[in-house]
Fold:
Amino acid sequence: MTTRARFLPPWLMTGARFILGLALAAMLWEAAVLLLGIRPHILPRLSTILSAIAATPGAYWSGFLRTLAETLIGFAAGGIVGVLNGVLFFRAPALRDLLFPIFVVSQTIPVIAFGALVVLWFGNTMLAKAVIAFYLTFFPVTVNTLLGLQSVDPRHTALLRSFGASGRQQLLRLQLPMALPQIFVALRLAASLSLVGAIVGEWFGDTTGLGVLLLQAMYNENVVGLWAAILCAAVLGTGFYGLVALAERRILFWGAEQ
Amino acid sequence: MNRGALRGALGVALLLILWEGLARGLALPSYTLPSVSEILLSAWTTRQALLTAAWFTLAEALAGYAIGCVVGIGIALLLSLLPPVRRGVMPVMMAINSVPVAAWSPLLLLWLGVGMASKIAAVALAVGFTVFLSALAGLDRVDRRAADLMRSFGAGPLSILWRLRLPTALPLIAAGMRVSTVRSLIVAIVTEMLGAYGGLGWIIYQAVVQIDFVAVWSAILVASALSLAFFGLVGVIERRVIFWRSS
Structure:
């Protein structure tokens, strides 16, 4: 390690390296398209895409916000229901046996078909998109919560019980904290999945959102517009994933990696 | 049959009875929720079209799945053998992966057209990344001391890869492949909905446009059955091949 590294806070170093990496990637992209003569039909120059976004920032910004809202609502609902389900299944194995196969089957239903039904049920609203995002996220969180709770050493639970801890105390003080690393693995996956749900949900004739921008660009064979929407989706996906990962590192301060 | 499986069957049966009772008792219109018997009947009468579509979708999913697995595992092996290349390539991989598959689908459709190629590519992309990431995680999981021991006996990198790393990584690779089965069919169907000449996604799209929701449900039925069968098959193969799997 260099001496300078020690005086800079680590987050600043990470941030600087991240920005440097981004700048490098942007230059590589631009240079590759120019030098290799890639046709704009395949991959337009990054500067072209960015200027397309700059030309109509309003459309992209409102689409970004709309999709973000849908993603967040779906993710939050999926996360909460997933953890509650996991706890419920852990406490009541009979219920788990009864319901788990149905959950598994529900996950084999293609989102797109489910989306068509949800839009019909809830109308073409933001709620419908959030429900689709929810549907994609609750299952992985349920599974990992259950796995995490089941992996708690029964001797620890027995010790707590011998001190007179109630079931709720055992759950909140021991079992849930021990399960948190597993739960966060699922939450990170859910962050990506909820975005997919929101985007696909918007394909059913909405007017704003990144999914709408994607479809419109596809129908107009507007490759630059398509790439602009893809870029926005990547920023949204990476940002949200990063936030969840950051929360994970803050909350799991004891560093229980797996 | 053990008690868990019995309860599971009971749960599914209860759900179906509840569903049928709700749909009939409240006389729900079929665009809200058709009864189970109605869906089964419709699936049976349109079985010819559904089977053709299912075959179409399955072919796309299987082709994409095979390509995705081979490419994903291949790249993971290559990168684990060449650490300097890995450091350069990984950020690019993560950047591609940060874009949801659903966002790539329209682009693939523009590039490769409405035919099967765009669906196969979308499935290969989704499966490839899942398998690639799990394979890389598996290859990294090898105990350093075991690798050092083999090296001290004069084993080369390839020999260590074949005898130690790959067997250690296989359970994780298999887990990635198992998760990918369901995903491959879903991605194929999603991409079909954006434009296709056939397949379950195409049937679902047309049924939605014609507001024929019994047809949507029967296509869902076929798609779910197909996914479960594919998932089960890969699970069986996995248990046969990876007999040393610890958990």
